[in-house]
Amino acid sequence: MMDPHWHTGGCHCGAVRFEVSLVEPVEAQTCNCSMCSKVGFVHMIVAESRFRLMHGHEYLTEYVFNTGMAKHLFCRTCGVKSFYRPRSNPDGWSVNARCLDAPVDLDLSEFDGQNWEAHAGHLSHLSRD
After folding, report:
1. Beta strands in 1-129 (DSSP E)
2. Which CATH architecture has domain 5-123?
């Protein structure tokens, strides 16, 4: 396994910028839930210690639905959701691979978010250091 490296990313307008520490290939998921399928989010779930918001906290707005556990964060200027606090891993972050400044090698799998309750446990290991 390779050592982790910090990668930068952000929203479309640049108001929100972050860094995420990743080990390639990155275990990542596409999801068929109502939210992810509409926005094309590609999940890279990481531990709290592997994510840093560099600037733009004041530009983030929050959206919650259903149980209110997941904290979906959007740039209030351009509307892009670069990362959020996932219900499956409330101790970590789900970062959108599409919002990185440079592509990374992804080990991509499909997650059945339409049947979230039955499958969420398969993601719990991703936010561990």
Report:
1. 5-10, 17-22, 26-31, 42-47, 51-55, 60-63, 71-75, 83-85, 92-96, 106-111
2. Beta Complex (2.170)
